[in-house]
Design brief:
Blueprint (H helix, E strand, L loop, with lengths): L3 E3 L5 E4 L19 E4 L2 E2 L6 E4 L4 E7 L11 E8 L9 E9 L16 E8 L4 E9 L4 E9 L6 E7 L13 E11 L1 H4 L8 E2 L19 E11 L11 H9 L2 E5 L6 E10 L2 E7 L9 E4 L3 E5 L3 E3 L1 E6 L5 E8 L8 E6 L5 E5 L3
Antiparallel strand pairs: 1-2, 3-6, 4-5, 5-8, 6-7, 7-15, 8-13, 9-12, 9-15, 10-11, 10-13, 11-14, 16-25, 17-18, 17-24, 18-23, 19-25, 20-21, 20-24, 22-23
């Protein structure tokens, strides 16, 4: 049951439960599994994305290395697999989470009543010194920048940062990214050549990562993150531990994978024969997705009907909605029109991804 915080006048100011605006902040969900050599895109732990134009690469995994006594069992590990020791001026590397604008209307951005929000997280960095973190508002394309200093390398450290609200422009009330949280990992002079002003909104690129250390200057470097929470107000409360099932459903609004870890010969989609070599297959999405998803089929997926036997997949087209994945699949064998059909996982690379990420 949700507990409420009460202000000095005895009024209920906000719910204590369901307050974390970040999804998968304790890194419980990792539908993609480990992702090696990543420059940009989503890695191991759902909803956390790398963005870069640097030559550096990271292997991303869901780790069991966590801060002691905090109730966390998983963290996101970034293992530098390709170092970048010579940064060009425009080089950058960020770890980020993007949050839908329609989930942020309570911040009242674009008004004189714009609210503060507080970000807290646990981090273990291979580098001592200055690390930059920013919140980017899609309302005007501006950034609120804070620095945190790592005192001891390869040691878990708790960070708490409060951001003032942005009063100039409102966040769009839709399913696009309203706020983006960016953890800087490296930055060239385009982003470090200005001056740091804590908790001020700016559109000047040179002010965004002043003094930033290079987390990707050695293949021995590992960067860890867990316990990420963003909440309305100026106080960091205890981390809101949500159930795995709850967190999984939140993640599946943006991405869901069926197969791969469920064993060989697992049925992934069911349907029928639409034409002699075309199968029409569908399934309901676990939740209403953020947008109509794009589908990817793993190399181990095969088609099957009783008359046509097992078929390899030549191509497919999506007929998806936000609630249903529907694929028209061209296969290698001829099949009998109207017969029932399945797509199944023939190997460990048999899976179907539905992607509606921001």
């Amino acid at each position: 049951m949700a507990v409420s915080r009460i202000n000095e006048a005895g009024l209920n100011v906000n719910q204590y439960g369901n307050r974390n605006l970040v999804i998968n902040g304790e890194m419980q969900v990792a539908q993609r599994g480990s992702v090696a050599g990543l420059q940009t895109g989503y890695g191991a732990c759902d909803r956390f994305k790398l963005a870069s134009n640097s030559a550096a690469r990271f292997d991303t995994t869901q780790s069991t290395d966590v801060p002691s006594g905090q109730g966390f069992s998983k963290s996101l590990k970034l293992d530098c697999s390709t170092a970048d020791t010579s940064l060009a001026a425009g080089d950058f590397y960020q770890l980020r989470q993007e949050i839908e604008g329609q989930n942020l209307q309570q911040l009242l951005y674009g008004s004189s009543s714009a609210k503060q929000c507080t970000l807290s997280f646990w981090v273990k960095s291979p580098k001592t010194g200055i690390h930059n973190l920013e919140v980017k508002s899609s309302a005007g394309g501006v950034f609120n920048i804070h620095q945190y200093t790592i005192a001891s390398a390869n040691t878990w450290q708790n960070v708490k940062i409060t951001f003032d609200g942005y009063q100039t422009t409102a966040i769009a009330n839709d399913n696009t990214a309203g706020l983006v949280i960016n953890w800087w990992l490296l930055a060239g002079t385009t982003f470090t050549g200005g001056s740091y002003s804590e908790n001020s909104w700016t559109s000047t690129s040179a002010n965004r990562a002043v003094g930033q250390v290079n987390v990707a200057d050695s293949t021995s470097n590992d960067f860890y993150l867990t316990g990420v929470q963003l909440e309305v107000g100026s106080t960091a409360t205890d981390f809101e531990h949500r159930s795995f099932g709850d967190e999984l459903l939140r993640c599946q609004r943006y991405f869901n994978r069926i197969g791969k870890d469920d064993g060989s010969n697992t049925h992934l989609l069911v349907g029928g024969v639409e034409g002699s070599s075309t199968l029409i297959m569908s399934r309901g999405c676990p939740v209403n997705m953020r947008a109509v998803p794009t589908c990817t089929i793993g190399s181990g997926v095969r088609g099957f009907t009783t008359a046509g036997g097992v078929s390899t997949i030549s191509s497919f087209a999506s007929r998806n909605s936000r609630d249903i994945v529907c694929l028209s699949v061209v296969v290698s064998n001829s099949h009998t029109l109207g017969q029932s059909a399945v797509l199944f996982d023939s190997t460990t690379d048999g899976y179907i991804d539905s992607d509606a990420e921001l």
